[in-house]
Amino acid sequence: MKVSKELVARHRENLLEAAGRLLRKRGFERVGVAEVAAAAGLTHGALYAHFPSKEALCREAVTRMLDKSAGAADRKARKAYVEAYLSPSHVRRRESGCPYTALAADVPRAPAKVRAAFSRGLEHSLDRSTKRLGGRDRAIVSMALMVGAVVLARAADGPALRDEILTAARRDLLK
Questions:
Q1: Dihedral through CA 57, CA 59, CA 65, CA 67, nearest 10?
Q2: Is 4 helix (H, G, I), strand (E, B) or coil?
Q3: DSSP secondary structure string, the chain?
Q4: What pLDDT is recorded for position 63?
Q5: Does the pLDDT of residue 18 top 90, yes or no?
Q6: CB proximity list for 98: less than 8 A, separation 6 or greater
Q7: pLDDT tens digit string along 137-148?
Q8: 3-class SS at 3?
Q9: How far is the CA of 124 from the CAs of 74, 94, 96, in angstroms?
Q10: What does the domain layout of the chain look like in residue ranges?
Q11: pTM of the predicted model, to two decimals?
Q12: What pLDDT is stored for residue 90 in this prediction?
């Protein structure tokens, strides 16, 4: 049975979405291709019809996640973006949240092509933020503060410390 181009495109999209969720939730090493395929409603054989390897899937999933993340930042006013990013809801939603907060610590152990894709996405995000914020240093500091605050808030053992971290970061970024 021949599969339409639309269905092939939808399967590919479903695989990338599932990979993005699972990679953010558990990292590169703890996600297998059969699991990604099952989460997309496909077999692992179908995954290999779209991607020659797990590395290729991860590389493309990273590129896609970072592009979507940068687009989300561009569509919101700065205050609204900072408030949403530095919220308890974002802290709780690792699998659908920012790929930087979920994957940055895993990237150094990822294959070279995945690291390169992540680095290109980071550079692209910093370039976009540099234009919005009026300087490269400010873009780097803002991103580091936001990503670091979410990472620390996720590590906090309780809502009081989590909220203190998020509030301090919001206050600094929005002053």
A1: -130
A2: coil
A3: -PPPHHHHHHHHHHHHHHHHHHHHHH-STT--HHHHHHHTTS-HHHHHHH-SSHHHHHHHHHHHHHHHHHHHHHHS-HHHHHHHHTSHHHHH-GGGS-HHHHHTTTGGGS-HHHHHHHHHHHHHHHHHHHHHHTSHHHHHHHHHHHHHHHHHHHHSSSHHHHHHHHHHHHHHHH-
A4: 97
A5: yes
A6: 69, 85, 90, 147, 150
A7: 999 999 999 999
A8: coil
A9: 12, 22, 20
A10: 5-174
A11: 0.92
A12: 97
Residue labelled with tokens 């989300």:
72
The full length of the chain comes to: 175
Superfamily of domain 5-174: Tetracycline Repressor, domain 2 (1.10.357.10)
Here the tokens at position 39 are 């989460």
Give Cα 109 distance to the centre of its chain.
Answer: 16
DSSP 65-111: HHHHHHHHHHHS-HHHHHHHHTSHHHHH-GGGS-HHHHHTTTGGGS-
Nearest CA among 68, 65, 62 for reference residue 115: 62
Q: What is the dihedral of CA 148, 109, 136, 85, to 10 degrees?
A: -40
Would you say residue 103 has pLDDT above 90?
yes
pLDDT at 1: 59
